[in-house]
Amino acid sequence: MFDDSIIKKLQDITGPEFASNKPEDLYIYGIDPGASLPRKVDFVVMPKTVEEVQNIVKLANKKKIPIVPMGGGLTLSGLTLPVKGGIVMDLKRMDRILEINEKSRYALIEPGVTTGQLKAYLEQHHPDLENSMPDAPPSVTIAGNALIHGSGYLSQKYGDHGQMINGLEVVLPNGELCKLGSCAVSEFWFARGPIPDMIGLFISSFGTLGIITKLSYKLYPKPKLRTCVFGLAKDPNAVPELLHGVTELDIIEDVLLGIQDKPEWMKGYITLITYITGNDQAEIDEKIKILKKVYRKRGARYMKVPDRYYDIFLEKPQFAAKAADFRKGGGFEYVGAMLPLEKIPQIISKGYEISNNHGIIPTMGARIIGKAHNIMFFISYSFNRADPDDIANARQALHETNVEVLKLGGVPWKPELEAQKMIMNKMDPNYLKLFSSIRKLLDPNGIMNPGNWEVEN
Ligand SMILES: Cc1cc2nc3c(=O)[nH]c(=O)nc-3n(C[C@H](O)[C@H](O)[C@H](O)COP(=O)(O)OP(=O)(O)OC[C@H]3O[C@@H](n4cnc5c(N)ncnc54)[C@H](O)[C@@H]3O)c2cc1C
């Protein structure tokens, strides 16, 4: 459907080995590790420089070819599958850490830098600093994660990862390069203001407004010691007050909930995992004492776990990312529901109901974002990738979960196409109108990830 000259032109831009239309190269870009169905990809390109990105976008504009930017491609909700074919722009070769500003505490990076790469780099060269990381495989990109309102182990303290963006360099849909944040005025990428803050437009818009080619990401002082304290609660109705109590304390780094029927010891309980940090053991011991009191007062009891579990839970990313069985056919996808704290009891009950109705072992959890301002509650559904009926079963469970999340006043996070439509159906029509107008203005030819956040697709 695209004329034969396109691949030659793309290869002229990137070099012959970094642009392809061969089925064996495209295959992996048309499938998703979650439950989404495969999609057609016409070209894959792997640019190395900003100029190459600009030239590809200009060519795509001239020929009206859709482009989907991609980092690690691991959102699990099919966000890098092209809805209308065209080019997948794999940004992994743009992987330079350009600057670490120790004083203003930020990293200036290219879009292909992964969470594991930045962590390893800081450990080696700047051991007093750290970046917040999701519990996703370490091959996911900082940009891909921050650009979808991701969250990680510093999110309770400092907010979601979108809030950790200080500045962006963007290739706009017409190929022009634009800087956003203090970097538009200064050589320092230290803040989003004090000028009109347009960075937010690029978060959770799924590559529909441009391609990020540089990103300034906040770093934080790294505490010397870190440990976790387990609690068990029985009654879901006690959870909101419990989390309120825990996050009232100024001593908490991260708070996670685990609600699952496997392993056996977790069944029937809500497991609370709270992380605390300190400069010496005396400080840690004092904080544990305070935390245990809050657990007791708010309906949970402290749980002593075998020492070997501590190592597993203290890893960054946590063990779950490594347990994900991508290669051997094991699949899973979750609805990440951004919810107000008070709706936790209801979502737990719905999670059990939907999982049991679909014959899937109930597996739920939550991460608390910013003093309980927001809860990322996930309900995860596993399936056998080799069994289409099993995948369809998981897709139906995901759909029913999205329905319930919206009914409860929550918003599905990193929504796949169908959930995007459900959100848009409930959205203030003028919000949608405003977003569509901005999009049309920036991208009159509709080349940037068409189909996403569109009423018709
Ligand atoms: C086991 C497991 C655990 C997970 N745990 C967490 C967790 O704890 N916290 C969490 O937040 N997530 C988690 N995730 C979800 C997901 O993996 C991450 O959010 C991941 O960081 C997404 O990054 P990515 O590089 O794969 O993004 P991609 O999937 O490549 O991209 C995400 C979106 O951003 C767009 N995009 C990517 N790069 C650019 C760019 N340069 N310019 C413009 N648009 C761009 C894409 O088009 C897409 O819409 C988990 C996933 C798994 C599999």
Descriptive tags:
457 residues; alpha+beta; Uridine Diphospho-n-acetylenolpyruvylglucosamine Reductase, domain 3; Alpha-Beta Plaits; eight-stranded antiparallel beta sheet; 14 helices; 19 strands; 32% helix
What is the fold's blueprint, element by element?
Blueprint: H1 5-14, E1 19-20, H2 23-26, E2 43-45, H3 50-63, E3 67-70, E4 87-90, E5 97-101, E6 106-109, H4 115-125, E7 129-130, H5 142-146, H6 155-158, E8 165-171, E9 177-181, E10 211-218, E11 220-221, E12 225-233, H7 239-248, E13 252-260, E14 270-278, H8 281-297, E15 300-303, H9 307-314, H10 319-323, E16 330-339, H11 344-357, E17 363-369, E18 374-384, H12 388-407, E19 411-413, H13 417-426, H14 429-442
Parallel strand pairs: 2-4, 3-4
Antiparallel strand pairs: 1-2, 5-6, 6-10, 7-11, 8-9, 8-10, 12-14, 12-15, 13-14, 13-17, 16-18, 16-19, 17-18
Task: Give the ligands present.
Answer: flavin-adenine dinucleotide
Q: Which CATH architecture of the largest domain?
A: 2-Layer Sandwich
Radius of gyration, CA atoms, in whole angstroms:
22 Å
Task: Indicate how many domains the architecture comprises.
Answer: 4
Strand content: 15-25%
Amount of helix:
25-40%
CATH top level of the largest domain?
Alpha Beta
Q: What topology, given as strand order, has the largest sheet?
A: 15-12-14-13-17-18-16-19
Between the first and last Cα atoms, what is the distance in angstroms? 19 Å
Largest sheet: 8 strands, antiparallel
User: Count of helices?
Assistant: 14
